[in-house]
Amino acid sequence: MEINKSLKNDTKIAYISMEIGLESNIPTYSGGLGVLAGDTVRSAADLEIPMVCVCLCYSSGYFYQLFNEKGEQKEKEIQWSFFYEFDKVEQPITIKLEDQEVLVSAWLYKVIGQSGHIIPVFLLTTEVEGNEPWKQKLTGSLYDSTSRWNRIVQEMILGIGGVKLLNSLGYENIRVYHINEGHGAFATLELYETLNNQLEKVKERCAFTTHTPVPAGHDRFNHSLIKKVFQDRFPPELLKLGTENGELNMTVLAMNCSQYVNAVSVKHEKTTREMFPNYDIDAITNGIHLPFWVSRPIRKIFDRKWPNWKSHPEVLSNAIEIDDLELFDAHLENKFNLISYQKGHSWNLLDEELITIGFARRFATYKRAILIFHDLDRLGKICQGEVQFIFAGKAHPQDQAGKEYIKKIYEAGRYLYDNYGVKVVLMENYNIDLAHMLVSGVDVWLNYPERYREASGTSGMKASLNGVLNFSVLDGWWIEGYKMKPEAGWPIGKFPDEYKEGEDINSWEKDSQYIYETLQNEIIPTYMNHDEWLFKCKNAIALAAYFNTHRMVSEYAEFAYSLIKQKPWKYTGA
Question: Euclidean distance between the first and final Cα of the chain, in Å?
Answer without folding.
Answer: 47
